[in-house]
Every structure is written in structure tokens, then in C-alpha cells.
Give the backbone structure.
Amino acid sequence: MSDRRPLMPKATAVWLVENTALSFDQIAEFCGLHPLEVKGIADGEVAQGIKGMDPVTNGQLTREEISRAEKDSSHKLQLAESKVQLPPLPQTRKGPRYTPVSRRHDRPNAVLWLLRNHPELKDSQIMRLVGTTKPTIAQIRDRTHWNSAQLTPQDPVTLGLCSQIDLDAEVKKAAKRAERDRKDGDIEKGGTLLSTAETTAPSGNTAEILAPKTHEAPEETPEQEQARVFAKLKGMTSHKEEDEPNEDDADSAKGEEKAGGKDEEKPEDKTGE
């Protein structure tokens, strides 16, 4: 099917069924309908009360195009080029997905299904698919949702919250992002480690063991050297004075020894007498 469709496709299909000998497949292809739906129009079961619209009068088809398609059943009808150039439609920003009221209670179940089966999806992608909010996704992930005990994972496509095409597109986008992040991580890690062949290969260069560096004392100035020598001499003289006994102390010690000897001799003389 082509992207371009005629205005009022069902009314155009009614007119083509009633006024041409085109096949159901050709009409369905041109109007964007299912062949069984076109057959229902021919049987009067579908599009009852819809008045047919002539596409030739509206400038959407030409008589030559219809005749060519009637002669060749494999020919596909092509819309005629419009003589009026319509201005391009302004691109409106796509808002959040609308969820019917009857399906809103199924959104937590769909979020739980996406978190379990597609953990690579970002919160923004889940919000686009299901039409929920970021706090709700965080609560379901952390099991702090008020109804977390009753939640059961359900496919959002089965629930009618999103289409399979949208889900596949988001999953494919997340897989590409994960692959790109993994490659970037490998590139960053590649420069930090050497290969086994490089680390285990014998090397001709021997490592040189260096002696530890010793902190050299700063050079002394003449004033510092003079002060150090005077302090050393002063210490030596003080030690000598402590080692040599005092002459007064020696004389007093000798006098005490003599006095003691005389006192001991006196009692011996008395006993002899």
C-alpha cells in the first residue's frame, strides 16, 4: 500500500464498486481498506447509507488510470497529482500518550512487565509507551507502590496500551544505546592494561635498583660552626670538673681518719694498766 490515500476512502470505495469493474484487491489497495471490507461493501453489509464519492470529479483519479487498471488486474491505481499546492503542516510536539479511562488501571501491570522483560528501557521510553509517570515507575521498581502486592505483569500490547511496532522500536533503540555504551567502555578500558604477551615476554633490559635517597644535611655557616665548637668545649670542661675531687674535701677526709685512730688507741692503754 502507498502512503497517499484518497479523501473519504469508504465513500470512494463505494463509488468504485458501483461504477467500475476493478477488483476488490485494487480498490482495497487504493483506498487503504481490507479486501474483505470491500467485499462487504459490494454485498451491502458494510458502509450502508454511505453515498459514493466520484474521485474523477474531485481530481483524485483520471479516466485513463481507471481504464488501465480495468484491463490489467495487477495494475495499482495511482492518485493524480494535485493542482493545488497545500502548505506543509506545522510539526506539533507529540504529547504524552492518551490512555482510555477503562485501561488506566492496567498501566501498573504493563510497567511491571516492561521492567521485568526489558530492563534496558529508560524511564522516558516506558513513559512514552504506557503513558505513565516517572514516580509511578520508581515506586513499582522499588516495590513501594500502594498496590504492589496485587500487581501482575501483563504485556502492554495485549492490554492495548501501545502497539507492537512502537514497542519494537523502543526496544531496538535501547539495544543500540546499550551496544554503543559497551563499545565506549571497552575503548576506555583498553588503554589501562597490557596484553599477556607483553607482560610475560622476557625483556633484555634489567631493572636497576637504586639506593634510597639520603637527606643531606645543609652546609653550616661559619657562625654556626663556631657556636657548635664552643658548645662542645664547654661540655668537655664540665665533665673534667666533675671527675676531679676537690682538695678541701680530701684534706677534711684525712683529718677525720687521724682523729678516729687516736680515739681507738686510748681505750687499749687503760685496759693495759
Q: What stands out?
A: The longest helix spans residues 164-190. Residues 222 and 228 are 10 Å apart (CA to CA).
